[in-house]
Amino acid sequence: MSADEQVFVIVGASLAGARAAEALRAEGFTGRVLLIGQEDEVPYERPPLSKGFLQGKNPREKAYVHPREWYAEQDIELMLGRRVVAVHPESRTVTLDGDEQFTYDKLLLATGSIVRTLDVPGADAEGIRYLRAYPDSEALRQALTADPRPQVLVVGSGWIGLEIAAAARGYGCPVTVVSSERAPLRHVLGDELAALFRALHEANGVEFRFEAGVRSFGDLDGAVRSALLDDGTELAADLVAVGVGIRPATELAERAGLAVDNGVVTDAGLRTSDPHIYACGDVASTLNPLLGRHLRTEHWANARAGGKAAGKAMLGQEVSYAQVPYFFTDQYDLGMEYCGWAGPGDYARVVFRGDPAVRDGKAPEVIAFWLTDDNRVVAAMNINIWDVQDDLNALVKAGFAGTPANPARLTDPTVPLADTLVR
């Protein structure tokens, strides 16, 4: 079969899916490309949903991966508002809602993730909101800017919860964050950085209720008015924003018989247990040769880079997806970038270049390094210090390759970051 006759199907009109389609055309693929997505919106980047768009700083269109006409220009069949209901590996077909079927030569699953919801009495009351798509962000922004400003309760102290809290405070809303953790972001960043983010939010007027969960919600005429915590405390709430995590959208893969373990399992070339099916983005648990483990990363950079890599892999190119994990956040005056991977048990301590203290409600200018017992850098975070990502990535790559750094030089701002490794 000639390349012109081949059909590549991408399930998920997401950032990852759009980047994969872009890579196929950029690499010279001349066959048919179908990009299928459940949302009616053209593929877009999701960070603005809890950042610039929610804060009213950026228009909707700024987050589009490409304008709508680009897909037609590239001869990419953009099928929006459509849902793939089944994948049949044995016949290499996909079935859409309405029983329409397409045969594929290669298939990419870029189905992303699904918001975790609360299952407690009253959780269906009006005013309890989740954030995953543009309509969610638009509705949340309208609620945050209502007069009088609502009493906001945020459930969850991860990235989404804290970004929503910061946006709500920017609109002048009183905000309380309820968290099962004992500090915000502790499960991601550890105690040292959790203390920094807690101090920043408290300095900006956020109240926290840690090691607590919501037992139920109270309503008046169907609209949320309060939350009862599991310790018996009742909190007033006109608006509840829930950010308790997401899960990979693996249902199609599971029904198709693909290997699934906290995501669709792929090798370093983003190939699943079926040689004709690939996966990338939030849904994929990919073998990362740099880290030496399977990793599922729920961040923008992984969707962007993973989509491009998947497109190349579908064409038979040699791909080894050894990305350094990366994510960023914007909260109040804090801008932050993080690279590397330092989960619980992966590091021994955190050291700082600069003072991490929050003073007068202002975020510091500081770099944090996550070090192992033998002083290898496995993760780094720059806060309000810019143009250092290349150096920090190099330190992390060296750390995972076995090269330690000198802690005294890491913490000395007069020493160039490139000169901190032990040669």
Fold topology:
Layout: E1 7-11, H1 15-26, E2 32-37, H2 68-73, E3 76-80, E4 84-88, E5 93-96, E6 101-103, E7 106-109, E8 113-115, E9 128-130, H3 134-144, E10 152-155, H4 159-170, E11 175-178, H5 186-189, H6 191-203, E12 207-209, E13 214-220, E14 223-229, E15 234-236, E16 239-242, E17 246-248, H7 251-255, E18 264-266, E19 277-279, E20 284-288, E21 293-295, H8 300-314, E22 326-331, E23 334-340, E24 349-353, E25 366-371, E26 377-383, H9 389-400, H10 407-410
Parallel strand pairs: 1-2, 1-7, 2-3, 7-19, 9-16, 10-11, 10-16, 11-12, 18-20
Antiparallel strand pairs: 4-5, 5-6, 8-17, 13-14, 14-15, 20-21, 22-23, 23-26, 24-25, 25-26
Keywords: FAD, Flavoprotein, Oxidoreductase
Organism: Catellatospora chokoriensis
InterPro entries: FAD-oxidoreductase/Apoptosis (IPR050446), FAD/NAD-bd_sf (IPR036188), FAD/NAD-binding_dom (IPR023753), FAD/NAD-linked_Rdtase_dimer_sf (IPR016156), Reductase_C (IPR028202)
How would you describe this structure in keywords?
five-stranded parallel beta sheet, alpha/beta, 10 helices, 26 strands, 423 residues, 22% helix
